[in-house]
């Protein structure tokens, strides 16, 4: 499903070239549960951004479902992100003025999904994360755990086959964090490919496969 071949990503900082990723070769099969671990600045987030099609590698080849994606234009990349990849972030990234239901609905509005189907899928999504009674609440009226549940529902509303989670429990207390991980792992058991980026050893160890990255290289 995901295949990275000799991926490099470097940035020019003044006269210095910074190698964020250095000859990354990795394959992630459909339905896998993978954690990517490493210290701060190791290249974890850069790797996530490349896999998520939010950033382009400086060189190398990325194949998603056997399709080379490194040379696609912005519209083609946006379509793949919208339909195939869900994102969960440490800081939730919800729209403050929208309710939980409206935040979940937003990707479908952007994708042109019909109103009737949007409403039905939002209700199903709220139920899947046990937030039916918080549908009309704005983000500032929700707890951290509830915010992340909304973010997960939004990430999955387009029914992507890949879910990328960047430090998904980083802003949560231990109880809420455990509930969120169990929710993510439940999605993986349903067949979603799950990749979690973390520096938390305990969280990373839960994955069935672990990838460690240090100084831009997979160890």
From TrEMBL:
<dbReference type="InterPro" id="IPR003593">
    <property type="entry name" value="AAA+_ATPase"/>
</dbReference>
<keyword id="KW-0378">Hydrolase</keyword>
<dbReference type="InterPro" id="IPR015854">
    <property type="entry name" value="ABC_transpr_LolD-like"/>
</dbReference>
<dbReference type="GO" id="GO:1902495">
    <property type="term" value="C:transmembrane transporter complex"/>
</dbReference>
<comment type="similarity">
    <text>Belongs to the ABC transporter superfamily. Macrolide exporter (TC 3.A.1.122) family.</text>
</comment>
<dbReference type="InterPro" id="IPR017911">
    <property type="entry name" value="MacB-like_ATP-bd"/>
</dbReference>
<dbReference type="Pfam" id="PF00005">
    <property type="entry name" value="ABC_tran"/>
</dbReference>
<protein>
    <submittedName>
        <fullName>Phosphonate-transporting ATPase</fullName>
        <ecNumber>3.6.3.28</ecNumber>
    </submittedName>
</protein>
<dbReference type="GO" id="GO:0022857">
    <property type="term" value="F:transmembrane transporter activity"/>
</dbReference>
<dbReference type="GO" id="GO:0016887">
    <property type="term" value="F:ATP hydrolysis activity"/>
</dbReference>
<keyword id="KW-0813">Transport</keyword>
<keyword id="KW-0547">Nucleotide-binding</keyword>
<dbReference type="GO" id="GO:0005886">
    <property type="term" value="C:plasma membrane"/>
</dbReference>
<dbReference type="GO" id="GO:0005524">
    <property type="term" value="F:ATP binding"/>
</dbReference>
<feature type="domain" description="ABC transporter">
    <location>
        <begin position="2"/>
        <end position="218"/>
    </location>
</feature>
<keyword id="KW-0067">ATP-binding</keyword>
<dbReference type="InterPro" id="IPR027417">
    <property type="entry name" value="P-loop_NTPase"/>
</dbReference>
<dbReference type="InterPro" id="IPR017871">
    <property type="entry name" value="ABC_transporter-like_CS"/>
</dbReference>
<dbReference type="InterPro" id="IPR003439">
    <property type="entry name" value="ABC_transporter-like_ATP-bd"/>
</dbReference>
